[in-house]
Amino acid sequence: MSTLFIQHQIDLTMKELLSGNMEQLEILVVSRLPRLLAILCTGVGMSVAGLIMQQLCRNKFVSPTTGATISSAQLGVLLALLFWPESTLWGRAIFAFIAAILGTWIFVWFILRIQFKDVVMVPLVGIMFGNVIGGITNYLAYRYEMTQALSSWLVGHFSMVLKGRYEIVYLVVPLVILAFLFANHFNIVGMGKDFSTNLGVPYHLVLFVGLTIAAMITASIVVVVGSVSYIGLIVPNVVAMFKGDKIRGTLTDTALFGAIFVLVCDMTGRVVIAPYELPIELIVGILGSILFIGLLLYRLRNGHKSVSLNAARLHSAWQKRKTVAGKEDAV
Predict the structure, then answer these.
(1) Is the preceding omega at residue 275 within 30 degrees of 0, hence cis?
(2) How many CB atoms lie within 10 A of CB 201?
(3) Which end of the chain is more exposed for a tag (fewer CB within 10 A), N or C?
């Protein structure tokens, strides 16, 4: 399967748009604006979904990728293609929603029943479970000769985003707003079942709602864009380095940074080997891996201590003052 997409070199200029050039206006409305909106929704949605899953599972390595959510959504799309070949994009989305929600619930059901689990075991269980679902998906695709039809959902890219074929991704907006409304409850549930019960918060209900929101966000993006891995893993961890772990205080920053990160990755993929276009999945994997390695090195050196820019400036000023005082004492 090729991982390159040809992009048409049609430059839009503000002068032509303002003068009423119908061809450029049509390109703007049909292709460029839908692509930009899909990019922003993808960045916001995947980042927020990852943040919710990390908070509810109390593990910084859990995300739609390591929690089997993306794999389950892909299986749902394949089932829609097999049992409902004439289905529209909304029909495939329904299958993807159901499969993603069930897959995420089963993953959390597994980890809740692991009595002695550490930080690494939880995402490891999710990766193994996701590989099992991926194996079933690939078997069904080969068995019924659907590999070519499934390929669009295995590698994320924005080259096919056009007006009339991407509007499902708008579901990210109300789901993110709903996540913001439940943010305080997610914080409490993230502290454990006993803590939630003592505060009168229904643990299982909030866990159910949070996982459903994350699964639906992921499925809506997979149906339109395809698999875009590791955004939900990397972005929340990077933001937490500067803003801490409280979901209410980091939700907005996580959404904004996720949108910017995906936009930068998309621009990079369009420029590197123009006129060809690299899929967003490849660019996110490369840049995300670099960021994640830096994050791991920082955690190894500083533990879970957050980066404080003001504290860093004060420490630097204190060091300079101490050096100057030492020189004066020596004189």
Answers:
(1) yes
(2) 18
(3) C
Q: Whole-angstrom distance between the N-terminal and C-terminal Cα of the chain?
A: 72
20: left (phi over 0), alpha (psi -120 to 50) or beta: left
Q: Where are the domains of the chain?
A: 8-330
Interval 84-135: pLDDT, tens? 888 888 888 899 999 999 999 999 888 888 766 677 788 888 889 999 999 9
Q: Which residues have CB under 8 Å from 187's CB, separation 6+?
A: 55, 246, 247, 248
Residue 84 and residue 71: Cα distance in Å, rounded?
20
The token duo for 260 is: 């910017």
Task: Look up the CATH superfamily of 8-330.
Answer: ABC transporter involved in vitamin B12 uptake, BtuC (1.10.3470.10)
Residues near 204 by Cβ (< 8 Å), separated by ≥ 6? none
Tokens 């006129």 sit at which residue?
275
User: How much is the pTM?
Assistant: 0.82
Rg (CA), the chain: 22
CA distance 136 to 130: 10
